[in-house]
Amino acid sequence: MYRLTGVTKRYTRGKETVEALRGIDLTIEDGDQLVIQGPTGGGKSTLLQMIGGLDRPTEGSVELDGEDLSRISETKLTRLRAEKIGIIFQSFNLIPTLTAQENVETALVPLGVKPAERRERAAEALRSVGLGERLGHAPSELSGGQQQRVAIARALVKKPKVLLADEPTGNLDEGTRDDIMALLEGLWHEYGLTFIMVTHDSSIARRAPRLATIKAGQITLTEQGGGQRYAQQAAGNGQPQQAAAHGGQPYVQQQYGGGQGY
Ligand SMILES: Nc1ncnc2c1ncn2[C@@H]1O[C@H](COP(=O)(O)OP(=O)(O)OP(=O)(O)O)[C@@H](O)[C@H]1O
Ligand SMILES: [Mg+2]
User: Fold this and answer.
1) pLDDT of 71-90, one tens digit each?
2) Cβ distance 199 to 40 under 8 Å?
3) Burial group, residue 91, by CB count within 10 angstroms (0-12, 13-18, 19+)
4) % the chain with pLDDT above 90
């Protein structure tokens, strides 16, 4: 469980100070999904960095399971990130010179997983995102949607507790966006992840069970009930899930093709 208390972040450059976050209080239960939206420059990515332990607040605390990420040592923080937190970005951030499988394996290196097991688990993670046939491809040999699937596999191969996503569909067309969202929804549910996602896409924000709007470093929370999920909508239409139609993504097909939402 996350508990953020009075989280403030100031960036100082020369004489200028930007207050990116101004006293954020927020609790996120295990297994919850939270979508964060708001105007550009409002502080969304900064908040995600605090939650992911990528940077520390100027004031306030970010507790994950009772441990304050703003105060633990750099070594402990690096370890905690490697074990518990998977992150995906708008621009995928894959290493261009590595294959899909090698990119996914990089997440297991800091955990000391042996090479043979790394290869096996990376292949399994890529199969679970529908890329079992693309293990040896370089990022440049994959479509944008496929590259994001590799990044998702890399985030999840270590079986993290938390998945963070900063505009994961920002570089994708609408059809691919829906595929990726259905995949993320399915994985969130399957793994019981705590799933926190920044998006500019209001059609995604509308479906979120819980919505945080960040403006000028301040937060407003809206509970939207169960939300209307991608998969549910697809199943309700009696249409095959787009992910299945596009890429033959087995998990989504199996989970949602039968017309049962959750
Ligand atoms: N490293 C930094 N140094 C100085 N200022 C920063 C830094 N990172 C962010 N800021 C400033 O903090 C504010 C919040 O930035 P942030 O990236 O969190 O916004 P955002 O809501 O993610 O915007 P966008 O929707 O454009 O991604 C902005 O005014 C930005 O210029
Ligand atoms: Mg941002």
Assistant:
1) 999 999 999 999 999 999 99
2) no
3) middle
4) 83
Residues lining ligand 1, CB < 6 A? 11, 13, 18, 20, 38, 40-46
Q: How far is CA 134 from CA 115, 125, 186, 237, in A?
A: 19, 12, 21, 31
Identify the nearest ligand to the CA of 10 by its number: 1
Contact 26, 221 (CB under 8 A): yes
Report whether CATH 1.10.1610.10 matches the domain 2-256: no
Domain ranges of the chain: 2-256
227 CA to centre of ligand 2 in angstroms: 24
Element (H, E) at 151: helix 144-156
Q: 0.90 cut: is pTM over it?
A: no
- Please name which of 223, 176, 257, 200 lies closest in space to residue 28, comparing C-alpha atoms: 223
- Which mutation among 7, 9, 11, 19 tests ligand 1's pocket best, with the greatest number of atoms within 8 A of CB? 11
Question: What does the pLDDT read at residue 225?
Answer: 75
Question: Exposed, middle or buried: residue 145 (CB in 10 Å: 0-12, 13-18, 19+)?
Answer: buried
Torsion of CA 60, 84, 147, 124, to 10 degrees: -170
Confidence check: pLDDT of 250 > 90: no
What percent of the chain stands above pLDDT 70? 86
